[in-house]
From TrEMBL:
InterPro entries per record: Acyl-CoA_Oxase/DH_mid-dom, Acyl-CoA_Oxase/DH_mid-dom_sf, AcylCo_DH-like_C, AcylCo_DH/oxidase_C, AcylCoA_DH/ox_N, AcylCoA_DH/ox_N_sf, AcylCoA_DH/oxidase_NM_dom_sf
UniProt similarity note: Belongs to the acyl-CoA dehydrogenase family.
Cofactor requirements of the protein: FAD
Lineage: Bacteria, Pseudomonadati, Pseudomonadota, Alphaproteobacteria, Hyphomicrobiales
Family matches, as PANTHER family: ACYL-COA DEHYDROGENASE, COMPLEX I ASSEMBLY FACTOR ACAD9, MITOCHONDRIAL
Residues in Acyl-CoA dehydrogenase/oxidase N-terminal domain copies: 39-110
Family matches, as Gene3D superfamilies: Acyl-CoA dehydrogenase/oxidase, N-terminal domain, Butyryl-CoA Dehydrogenase, subunit A, domain 2, Butyryl-CoA Dehydrogenase, subunit A, domain 3
All copies of domain Acyl-CoA oxidase/dehydrogenase middle, residue ranges: 132-227
Pfam families per record: Acyl-CoA_dh_1, Acyl-CoA_dh_M, Acyl-CoA_dh_N
Record domain Acyl-CoA dehydrogenase/oxidase C-terminal: where: 240-387
Name used for this protein in its record: Acyl-CoA dehydrogenase
Molecular-function annotations in GO: acyl-CoA dehydrogenase activity; flavin adenine dinucleotide binding
Keyword terms, alphabetized: FAD, Flavoprotein, Oxidoreductase
Length: 516
């Protein structure tokens, strides 16, 4: 038995070394191929370079974590997000394609073995048959309780009607994972996920959204006009589609955090290159003490995000998915700090940073969506704050802090919140930040998630951010104070109605109404 154990351990070690070499070779080859593409031109034309899809498919990146028997690479989550982050350092749009396909849509299909020809569908998806994820609606956003698209459940058919907006990959996809409200005699009224063929009669891809960033990836409105699919294509047999959607979105948050890391790293790299050559008086910019400290803080933020991603990959649930609270905190920190660093780097370059010919302008625009994708920062912070304070979930948060050896950090956060109104929106946001920065401090202090020499300095940065946050703790607001804020806004709107009468404003308002 001992000999068997020793041989098995050696076999496993050899397998791991082989997997590491394979991942390193894949990473190197991908970087070499992406370096040959002109993503700036793609941004101007609002279309990917024609060869990008074939490059991603050739390297197997449409099956990052998919098992080998289904044609995938079967990579560990940490290696998959490294590839996404590397791709994002070239183009966030390209990386978002990988996140939508690999982390949002494809897992929903993999979790439904009952659908006809599942193996064939997944095999095609790993070879480049793109899969889209259709959840967002005009009046609901991604909030499940407000979704109005309907799925009429019949004995052998499902009829889908409704409209979805901002659906990435919609017009390029082979398959669309659509979420709708179940209706019919045997329906429970809950959310269902349905796999829809892009060529299904009644499905129309209409308006193409002209977004601020992510110009390389197409995003469309989808119109479902009595689209009929076989009942067997309902992905969530028990009609608990929100469970599948939330699980995918949790993985998606890790993907968005990886995108933020890649964009953040590229922004620092570009700005540091410029500062190394640009002179301020007798010194180069990078030798200026203020700018040295600014770059130092940027690098420390990068180290924190890397460690948070590493922790999210290592602390997975029994279902193999990242911890939902840690994933949310990681996504918040990565997206917020990516935006901050991109802004600082644009500022360092001055007018050149604002020039569309320089890469930072594109990074700055692309980074902005990361604070919205897979849950806006405010929504995720409110959720984390509510989980920290709620009796139903506070034990989950406490267990998470204990798992990274930071029970005292959790206790300090609870003490900080004592006496505050737990239903106040400002308190929830504050509690969410306490949770996010508290987890970041715990991860950096644990020492096992970062091998960097500057891990201690990064932990100090987070501690400083926490101390600053605590000086802005929300106070109890009287009814008079809240009424004053409401009156101030009302007065402004009345004044603006008289002073701003531009037809452009009217046109912009009318365009906005279609999303409300």
């Amino acid at each position: 038995m001992a000999m068997y154990t020793q041989v098995y351990a050696q076999f496993r070690e050899a397998q791991e070394r082989t997997a590491e070499r394979r991942a390193a070779a894949l990473y190197s080859n991908l970087i070499a191929d992406l370096s040959q593409l002109n993503f700036a031109d793609a941004d101007d034309r609002r279309a990917f370079p024609p060869t990008l899809h074939s490059i991603l498919a050739r390297h197997g990146l449409f099956g990052l974590t998919t098992p080998g028997e289904h044609g995938g690479l079967a990579l560990p989550l940490e290696e998959a997000i490294n590839l996404i982050s590397a791709t994002a350092s070239f183009d966030v749009s390209a990386a978002s394609t990988l996140v939508i396909h690999n982390f949002l849509a494809l897992p929903c299909i993999q979790a439904a073995p009952h659908i006809p020809e599942q193996n064939h569908i997944i095999w095609g998806a790993t070879r480049g048959d793109l899969c889209a994820f259709a959840l967002t609606e005009p009046g609901a956003g991604s909030a499940p309780r407000h979704i109005e698209a309907s799925a009429l459940m019949r004995e052998d058919k499902v009829r889908i009607s409704g409209r979805k907006i901002w659906i990435g990959l919609a017009d390029w996809a082979r398959w669309i994972v659509c979420f709708a409200r179940a209706s019919g005699p045997d329906a429970k009224g809950r959310l269902v996920g349905v796999l829809v063929d892009r060529q299904a009669p009644g499905l129309k891809v209409t308006h193409e959204h002209r977004t601020l960033g992510l110009r390389g990836i197409i995003q469309n409105t989808l119109e479902f006009h009595d689209v009929e699919v076989p009942r067997s294509y309902v992905l969530s047999r028990d009609q608990d589609g929100w469970g599948a959607a939330s699980s995918s979105m949790n993985r998606g948050r890790i993907g968005v955090a990886a995108m933020g890391l890649g964009a953040l790293e590229r922004a620092i790299q570009v700005a540091a290159s410029y500062a190394s050559h640009r002179r301020l008086g007798k010194l180069r910019m990078i030798e200026n003490s203020y700018i040295e400290q600014l770059f130092g803080q940027m690098v420390l933020r990068r180290e924190v995000v890397k460690a948070m991603l590493a922790a999210s990959c290592q602390l997975v649930s029994a279902q193999g998915a990242p911890n939902v609270h840690l994933a949310s905190a990681t996504k918040v920190l990565s997206s917020e700090w990516c935006g901050l660093v991109a802004d600082q780097c644009v500022q360092l370059l001055g007018g050149r940073g604002y020039d569309e010919g320089a890469p930072l302008a594109k990074i700055y625009r692309d980074a902005r969506i990361l604070r919205i994708f897979e849950g806006p920062t405010e929504a995720l912070l409110s959720h984390l704050g509510r989980c920290l304070l709620s009796k139903a979930t506070r034990d989950e948060i406490a267990d998470l802090f204990r798992s990274v050896g930071a029970a005292s950090v959790h206790g300090a956060a609870i003490e900080q919140l004592s006496g505050l109104n737990e239903t106040d929106g400002a308190v929830l946001i504050y509690a969410g930040w306490l949770t996010t920065l508290g987890l970041a401090k715990a991860v950096m202090s644990a020492g096992c998630f970062s091998a960097s020499d500057c891990a201690a300095a990064a932990a100090d940065l987070v501690s400083s951010e926490l101390a600053t946050l605590r000086t802005r703790a929300p106070a109890r607001q009287s009814v008079e104070v809240r009424n004053w804020a409401s009156r101030t806004l009302t007065t402004f709107l009345e004044d603006a109605a008289c002073s701003i009468r531009s037809p452009v404003l009217t046109d912009d308002y009318l365009r906005l109404v279609q999303y409300v």
